[in-house]
Write a structure and sequence with these properties.
about 325 residues, mainly beta, Immunoglobulin-like, six-stranded mixed β-sheet, 4 helices, about 10% helix, about 40% strand
């Protein structure tokens, strides 16, 4: 990695730390009438919808850790993640809420870990914890939309943090929440860059492959077959809403569900604007997220993909099984 790039990133890390300190001081007095514990579920489960209309204080308890786990049926890697999950749990709040993030870092961690929530608020919102320590951040959720939260450590460790699993989605809903639908899912596309090895090996991180944009795996929800072995489910007539993120760092995702049209899409997860309608594929940039939904009209198994279809061989796909009666008026085999 060029020396100038590392110097710039280290400088950025110092600036982030300096900006963070006054932010914490300013936000320390924030408070709302009701205090709620955030429900933090493992993807593809999304937290339950918001139905309240008054701001609250939402307490989000997170724990960073490092562990060896399966990236495919054949190989393992060392993950760095949150609450033992990759991706990290999705956080769901309402605009105007005060968000209290408590970040613990397990004592057996080798790394300091941090998370940046700056996209969901005005100004810096970075919380960092050393191994065996705990840190707290309080910020006001001022920006409506679906955002990626992620590690923001200064280089060179920044890329490895991000590419080992330190990311998730935070949804800031409008007052009163989004329009209800029958089914909601949380799906995140991730890239992993690992050295080659044999079956059953634990594969180490490979920075050279990152720079060459030569991903070993591009997966949905942290494993090559996470949404294949355990497909998503819905029924004919139900509307399925997807909170879809792209952790990056090299590839945009052209998200598409084979056999379906996306009835509504909120590009960039921007719920302050009206959605686009009847979208075949939608572009999700690196470090961005989108919201898409459609009503299932026919039963079957539908494949969610990155439409750069060669990536399906690296894991960028998932299945949605829709159960129910066939509607011959829509189409039938000849």
């Amino acid at each position: 990695m060029p020396k100038s790039f590392l110097q710039n990133m280290r400088h950025a890390g110092v600036i982030s730390a300096l900006v963070m300190a006054p932010c914490l001081a300013i936000n320390a007095g924030l408070a709302s009438a009701e205090t709620i514990q955030a429900q933090l579920l493992k993807a593809p489960k999304a937290p339950p919808p918001i139905t309240r209309t008054q701001p609250a204080t939402v307490v989000v308890n997170l724990e960073a850790s490092e562990w060896e786990g399966l990236i495919s049926d054949d190989n393992r890697m060392e993950f760095w993640g949150i609450n033992g999950m990759v991706p990290a749990p999705m956080i769901r709040v309402m605009v105007g809420d005060t968000v209290e993030v408590n970040l613990k870092n397990k004592k057996d961690s080798k790394q300091s870990h941090n998370l940046d929530f700056g996209k969901a608020t005005d100004g810096a919102a970075l919380v960092s914890a050393e191994p065996g320590k705990e840190a707290k951040l309080t910020f006001k959720a001022t920006k409506q939309g679906l955002f990626v939260y992620q590690s923001s450590t200064a280089a060179p460790s920044n890329i490895q943090h991000l590419l080992s699993g330190m990311y998730g989605l935070i949804l800031v809903e409008p007052v009163g929440g989004l329009k209800p639908v029958q089914v909601e899912y949380y799906v995140m596309q991730s890239e992993f860059y690992l050295k080659d090895g044999k079956k059953n090996d634990t594969l180490p991180f490979a920075i050279d492959r990152v720079k060459a944009a030569d991903a070993s795996y591009i997966v949905h929800n942290g494993h090559m077959t996470a949404l294949v072995k355990v497909p998503l489910r819905s029924k004919v007539g139900e509307t399925t809403r997807w909170f879809y993120g792209n952790a990056g760092v090299n590839f945009e995702s052209s998200w598409h569900v084979i056999g379906e049209m996306l009835d509504r899409v909120w590009p960039g997860g921007d719920v302050s604007k009206a959605p686009l309608e009847s979208i075949q594929s939608t572009l999700v940039g690196t470090g961005e997220a989108t919201i898409g939904e459609f009503k299932g009209e026919m039963p079957g198994t539908f494949v969610s993909v990155d439409h750069s279809l060669f990536r399906t061989e690296k894991g960028a796909l998932g299945l949605l099984k829709i159960d129910g009666p066939t509607n011959a008026e829509l189409f039938k085999g000849l």
